[in-house]
Amino acid sequence: MPEAKEKILQIRDLDITFRTTAGPVHAIRGVNIDLYKGETVAIVGESGSGKSVTMKAAMGILASNATVTNGSIEYTYRNDGGNMETVDILKKDKKWIRRNVNGKRIAMVFQDPMTSLDPTMSIGKQIMEGMIWHYKTPKAEAWKRSVELLKEVGIEDAEKRMKNYPHQLSGGMRQRVVIAIALSCNPELLICDEPTTALDVTIQAKIIELIRKVQKERGISVIYITHDLGVVAKVADYVNVMYAGKIVEKGLINDIFYDPRHPYTWGLLSAMPDLETDDERLYTIPGSPPNLLHEKPGDAFAPRNKYALVLDDKADPPMFRISDTHYAATWLLDPRAPKVEMPEELKTRLERMKKEAEKYGSEL
Ligand SMILES: Nc1ncnc2c1ncn2[C@@H]1O[C@H](COP(=O)(O)OP(=O)(O)OP(=O)(O)O)[C@@H](O)[C@H]1O
Question: Whose CA is nearest to atom 5 of ligand 1?
């Protein structure tokens, strides 16, 4: 972690509602996220928990039926004049965001490279496009830089590959190209939305390794959106666990993996495959996430939570402080609550993970 921490993104009290024919969907509820230069923040949670919507808001690319009803998304960056500037993305229009943020200072890597690449355009052209549009880079220069980028992301025969079309590449190579495109304008922040979900397991590890490498070499910040805690364990400095549009637990990677406090985090960790558990015995969190069309009072996780208290049906828990880095929104942390520990099986599993990490000399 860098010594003097420079904050580059600060999301505060973000509330987003979608207009739908069935009524308003309150998809994001009071989200706060901080991101510092060079760090990796993960947002983890089941499908529909609000991870992508939060990041789309940060990139100013929300769907047209979305309304931000509260909050701010402050982004601090070095402007074209070389000075540091802080803007609230929510107060900027689409044109400004397209010119100054999207693909330039903040770039995204999506789950499926096939949908983020244009099948009708050579990959060389697709990498050059951003440089030419954002920086008016001359074509010959953009070509040269694109070849270098392809090499940087580990593509051999880069000159030759420039002329290829996406369908001529394997899935792993396509995702490398997507990463090259994302890096083409020297972004300060990379948002990776399930960047490995569509890939084979062996390729997954290589893409994660690649993202780590470019992050380190370039000193950029990364936000990982994923439902896979295995990926989180490998990449993140800081973790936000999301449920039903709200962050329910946040902490440093070791806080979340070795001292989780929210029963939802317990569930996610118990459901994480590891070497010792076979698929048939793997835990799944009972029930399914709530329908956000019908907001109910109380804690949205209560119906799936075997540790729920009577109070959970009445009031949404606030964020309780566990340490300066670790917070969780569960009434179990209220001083009046009965003492409840994480399931014994999970405790054993986390201890095993800790021992393995110590053996291999990694943080996790
Ligand atoms: N354009 C939209 N109109 C209506 N509801 C939407 C729209 N986009 C997202 N939502 C709703 O917002 C909620 C959060 O969705 P989001 O895509 O952020 O979830 P997610 O955690 O990223 O899930 P996944 O892992 O499946 O991508 C969901 O309930 C989803 O149905």
Answer: 18
Instruction: Let me know: does 230 contact 273? Beta carbons within 8 Å.
Output: yes
Query: How far is the centre of ligand 1, averaged over its atoms, from the C-alpha of 261 (Å)?
Result: 26
* Nearest residue by C-alpha to atom 4 in ligand 1: 18
Q: Tell me if ipTM is over 0.95.
A: yes
Architecture of domain 7-241: 3-Layer(aba) Sandwich (3.40)
Nearest atom in ligand 1 to the alpha carbon of residue 45 is 21
Global confidence as pTM = 0.92
- Return phi, psi of residue 82, to 5°: 90, 5
Reading the block at residue 149, the tokens are: 């980028």
Closest CA to 232 of 75, 260, 359: 260
Q: Name the residue ranges covered by the structural domains of the chain.
A: 7-241
pLDDT of residue 362: 59
Q: What are 108's strand-pairing partners?
A: 191
Residues 252, 255, 261, CA angle at the centre, nearest 5°?
130
List the structure tokens of 358: 């110590």
Question: Which residues face 190 on adjacent strands?
Answer: 107, 222
The pairs formed by 158-163 with CB atoms below 8 angstroms and a separation of 24 or more are 161/123, 161/124, 162/122, 162/123, 162/124, 162/127, 163/122, 163/124
The protein residue whose alpha carbon is closest to atom 30 in ligand 1 is 48
Ligand 1, CB within 6 Å, residue ranges: 18, 20, 25, 27, 45, 47-53, 63, 65, 227, 292
Q: Are 337 and 331 in contact (CB under 8 A)?
A: yes
Q: How far apart are the first and last CA of the chain?
A: 15
Q: Is the dihedral of CA 225, 230, 236, 242 positive or negative?
A: positive
Low-confidence ranges of the chain (pLDDT < 50): 2
Phi/psi region, residue 310 (left: phi>0; alpha: psi -120 to 50; beta: rest), is: alpha
